[in-house]
Amino acid sequence: MRTDSSSGTLPAREHLPAAAAGTPVLDVVIPVYNEEKDLQPCVLRLHEHLKRTFPYAFRITVADNASTDTTPLVAARLAAELPEVRSFRLEQKGRGRALRTVWSASDAPILAYMDVDLSTDLNALLPLVAPLISGHSDLAIGSRLARSSRVVRGAKREFISRTYNLILRGSLQARFTDAQCGFKAIRRDVAQILLPLIEDTGWFFDTEMLVLAERAGLRIHEVPVDWVDDPDSTVHIVRTATDDLKGVLRVGKALATGSLPLDRLTRPFGDDPRDRDIKDVPKGLARQLVGFCVVGGMSTLFYLVLYSAFRGFAGSQIANALALLVSAVANTAANRRLTFGVTGRGGAVRHQAQGLVVFGIGLALTSGSLAALNAATSDPGHSAELAVLVAANLAATVLRFLLFRAWVFPDQGDDASAASTVVASHTPNSHTPNPPTYQAYASASYANSPYPTDQFRAGEVADRTWGDPTMRLQPVRPHDSQDPRNPR
After folding, report:
1. What's the pLDDT at 31?
2. 231 or 299, which is more confident?
3. Among 92, 200, 297, 337, which has the minimal tally of Cβ within 10 Å of its Cβ?
4. How large a percentage of the chain has pLDDT more than 90?
5. 144 near 151, Cβ under 8 Å?
6. Least confidently predicted of 78-87, 100-109, 434-443
7. How high is the pLDDT of residue 45?
8. In this structure, what are the phi and psi dihedrals at residue 88, rounded to the nearest 5 degrees?
């Protein structure tokens, strides 16, 4: 298992160690804008649920996005009444801006957020954060589109949601099912790496975070949720959808051109099979040679089939050029994935462009060989042409491997220059010019020791004889929607 945390790499996954006294394990952020009516019932309901079901210390943070009503006063009153609640005010709107600001300054190892309408059933909160606490996953999201999810909403929102996620799968090759469900969590060490790479400050923030995390090889855990649409939602569907599509185009372009530094985050946290010492599996140059030879052999056969097909209606030079062009594109794509281990679409356009340059060199070599054959023999046979082309392609293959390894897919190992190092900052970047006024916490290093656990006899759960009252089984309401201060 890789456990290094040197510059440019991600720290290893591990079960959250014991935190310092007074430090919450979970920080739930509720971004709000002009929510004076719904804020208090939301916070009270969430606070009561966490008190009753969550076994660790927690915090609820109300992030006010420049509200113009009495929302800041309601948030301040809740913070004064409940010790687990705090609030701060941002002078600029934007859900993504609020999440980046709070998450960047939070000292809790698990960071989460949910919408103020609490459309998602809170019984899914503990299953959402449990894989992050255990170290199994890096991010967790609620999904309204899973088969076992129970969702109540109008046909218009259902159509838009499914269409948007279908666009993500088709354009950005996303494998998560629901990008915009307002019910997500992330480990703080992961957030410190990802947040500086996210540009959006609005509703596309979620999607951009998930796409970058997935491309970086991080593990995303999905939880089917029960969800009831809020009929009083103030989200402008058309404007939000338009902004999301613009974000898809921007991120897709950045991934295709390789402008995002995801090559520095190609290893997921923790135990990666690619980092293990596996018997009889060649490494480094030997592994690349084996992969390149396999791809090269298949490409040569593919080239000969194409040349024979094109030769039936074109001259030898044209048939050679066409066969080389088609096989070169396929060869670059295969070597990119199988030989040099580059996954995803990031930098694919640049790699293909460089591959075409290598193709031009191969074309010059094989075309020169054909020209020499035609100069030596006035009417060479088809078998003689194929023999010369096989020899020329073997020479071009050796040259192609050297160029691929040194130029197209250079080694991105631990000796990369310091200029390419990702430096994670614990403070907000330029997207949040006005940081919150609450106390900023320095990044704390935790010891590698698990949370203390107690031994108990079989059947003790049913007897409810545990010493810790927070761990006793509690009745669960079907939708956990009751306000503890509502006498109805």
Report:
1. 94
2. 299
3. 297
4. 30
5. yes
6. 434-443
7. 95
8. -150, 165
Token reading at 177: 């099912």
Mean pLDDT of the chain, nearest integer? 77
- With CA atoms as reference, report the closest residue to 27 among 77, 79, 102: 102
Distance of CA 464 to the CA centre of its chain: 41
Helices 382-403 and 348-376 cross at an angle (nearest 10°) of 140
pLDDT of residue 55: 93
**What pLDDT is attached to residue 284?**
60
Instruction: Name which of 170, 161, 247, 245 is nearest 212 in CA terms.
Output: 247
Q: Which two tokens stand for residue 260?
A: 């995002």
Please report, in angstroms and rounded to a whole number, the separation of the first and last CA atoms in the chain.
54
Please say if the pLDDT value at position 481 is more than 50: no
Domains in the chain, ordered, with CATH? 26-270 (3.90.550.10), 284-408 (no CATH)
b/e code 82-103 from CB counts within 10 Å (16+ = b): eebbbbbbbeeebbbbbbbbbb
